[in-house]
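Data card: per-record layout.
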Amino acid sequence: MDTAEAVETIQREMTVFARRARAAAGRLHPELSLVSYTLLGHLEESGGCRATDLAAHHALDKSTVSRQVAALERADLIERRPDPEDHRVQVLHLTDAGRDILAQVTESRRDAFRERLSGWPEEDLERFAGYLVRYNAGNPVP
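The structure for this 142-residue chain is written out next.
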């Protein structure tokens, strides 16, 4: 396989991976889209942030994030709180229900990955994990 074929295969397989991830997110929690799941995850990791920070971090349009945030608020999964340093700014935080849903979906996703990768040798898993980290970080080959 030459470089052009390899890149085409990677592009095709990443597209399949993304479709599968979106479909799996819907099965794991019907009201929680993949975008919503990733937004909740970032809010948990960051300890809360502004909607504009979410949009920038995920390279999403502000209107997309605004719609997702509104839906998550209606579902009582996130709440707005004034920024203690600047009361004009609203910071998004997970609610207890949001933490519970995120934990449930995260565990279900881990179980699905464990099942799908159960026959892989440890060396392959480590190599695959390393490649994904490097790809997502945008780092060139050393």
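Known properties of this structure: The two ends are 21 Å apart (CA to CA). The longest helix spans residues 3-28.

See the next section for split statistics.
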